[in-house]
Amino acid sequence: MPEYNPNVTTHIITDAPEGTTLRALGVKRLKDIPEHIPTLKWSWVVSGINHKNSLSKEEFDARLDGDILFLHAAFHERMDAGRKPQPIAAPSFRKKGKERAAEQNRGDGPSHGVASTSAATQDVPALFSESEGDVPAHSSRPFGALISPPTSPRRSPVHGQSSKENNHDPLAEFYPQAHKQRQQEDEWSSLGDLDADASEDVGTDSDAGDPEPHPPAPRQKRGWTCDKKEVQAKGDCPNQDIIDKLTQLMELHKAKMGDDDHWRAFSYSKSIRALRNYPRRIKTYEEARGIRGVGEKTAKKIEEILQTGDLQRIKYEKTKDVEVTRLFQGIYGVGQSIAFKWYSAGCRTLDDLRAGKGGVKLSPVQEIGLQYYDDLNDRMPRAEAKAIFELIKPIALSIDPKLYIEIMGSYRRGKADCGDIDILITRPVDDGNTHRGVLPCLLQKLHAADIITEDLALPEDPDDLEAIYRGLCHVPDVKGSKRRRIDFLSVPWTARGAALLYYTGDDIFNRAIRMKANVLGYSLNQKGLFGNIVRDPRDRRIKMNAGVLVASETEEEIFKILGVPWQEPHERVRG
């Protein structure tokens, strides 16, 4: 339901903090929620799905609305809300030892080879059985192999009853959403700073299944990546050789298609970030394993680099198709799909593309990317980005002295080199004027001054207050000056804070703060922070309304509302 109504509501599902939940419900205190309405975490829904087909309808209803509720309580003060004590038959494990032994002799007991420690628990009613979905999100219990397999067969749904039961099932409409959420679990939790190997272990690996030679080091408390300021190490990194090898492996996985390689690349990026900020030289496997963000398999690879100076996995992953498609993806406007398509057509070199081998045809933008391939794949020094910006800014101010023009991206984060130049353009509206029409006028002047050389993407409406231009530029009148990527982003004055936050980055910080906003019931993008968002219960990625603008003019107000400690641009580096 879109709005909370205590006369109709039966359950409240929330993973948000107390304050956010109270605002969404329109009440001041948790005590204002009627005692018969439980406030539960999303894990309660997942728990119901896990036991949907293994319980009878009576047991299923008892599980959903019985004593099991306290395991999924969203708030400690309301652990008893909605509980309905039910009489439960004495569990069968209270049988005398002789009766239990007789059952085992008849073959009714546990199968041979099962540890005796499970004998007293195997007959516990399904109402109290646990699965991974039953454990509250804050539980610290490690997940491992089951002590023994269940001795009772799972009940299959009876034909002709499923539709009838679903009509009375309060969770039926949430099943598709829960299944999708479980598939996205790695992405959500990795942004909350889970171990790097949570995603690295996807699929098969060369050392998959090997026993752990060392116990894992204790882990720190998890939190949001965007909430922790990270002081970047100064001077030479003592583990640069390790970082270089892991970076090579990460780039190979990035060039491949498929979710497994995507998550491995993401995992290595987290490990590399941790190693870059580690203050001393790593000497042992145990030391590597104890670093937050370095998992079991990555620690093994670090140990190999320490012992041999090399990493054999790189040679294994560096196949011909990966090398060629990585080469092709260096062309502006070419992604994985196009690169593999060209490889399948028989192209192996950039000259093959120039010759149109296999019937390959490049778009005008791709031809520009191919022509300046080396320039565009070479990062520009910070000084060069500054020189180009200082040429552009006075030309822009000559059009309108009240323009607000700022360089963003890695330059604003204080990086020593930049991949491209991102420039924000807006204007205060206190005098009744705007920056409408400034962008096309500026582009014309920059072309005339030989600063902008090629256009890659023109905005649909250049006169709009919100427009994006992409092109190439260089330092004019300098022999041998390289082509550099440049983007102009024109935004309304009221959205300048959200735009600065979005286009400053870095990518990992942005993903984390947007995900935190999502969990808190907001939506964050380059236009602002929006509240009162109603999402499709079957797919939380789909918004049912635009929401209400909460903050957009300054970065500070967005940070404050989301509970993120203020960080200067150079403190937002996570990658």
TrEMBL record:
Q: Where in the cell is it found?
A: Nucleus
Return the Acidic residues bias intervals: 194-210
A molecular-function term among this protein's GO annotations: lyase activity
The UniProt annotation puts the region (Disordered) at: 81-226
Which CDD domains does the entry link to? NT_POLXc (cd00141)
Q: What is its main location?
A: nucleus
One GO cellular component, as annotated: nucleus
Keyword check for Lyase: yes
Its domain of life reads Eukaryota
Instruction: Provide the GO biological process annotations.
Output: DNA replication; double-strand break repair via nonhomologous end joining
Q: What residues does the BRCT domain cover?
A: 1-62
Q: Which reaction does it catalyse?
A: DNA(n) + a 2'-deoxyribonucleoside 5'-triphosphate = DNA(n+1) + diphosphate
What keywords are annotated for this sequence in UniProt? DNA damage, DNA repair, DNA replication, DNA synthesis, DNA-binding, DNA-directed DNA polymerase, Lyase, Metal-binding, Nucleotidyltransferase, Nucleus, Transferase
Q: Which residues form a coiled coil?
A: none
Active site at: 301
- Protein family membership: Belongs to the DNA polymerase type-X family.
The entry's function note states: DNA polymerase that functions in several pathways of DNA repair. Involved in base excision repair (BER) responsible for repair of lesions that give rise to abasic (AP) sites in DNA. Also contributes to DNA double-strand break repair by non-homologous end joining and homologous recombination. Has both template-dependent and template-independent (terminal transferase) DNA polymerase activities. Has also a 5'-deoxyribose-5-phosphate lyase (dRP lyase) activity.
Spell out the protein name for this chain: DNA polymerase
Q: Which organism is it from?
A: Hebeloma cylindrosporum
| Lineage, broadest ranks | Eukaryota, Fungi, Dikarya, Basidiomycota, Agaricomycotina
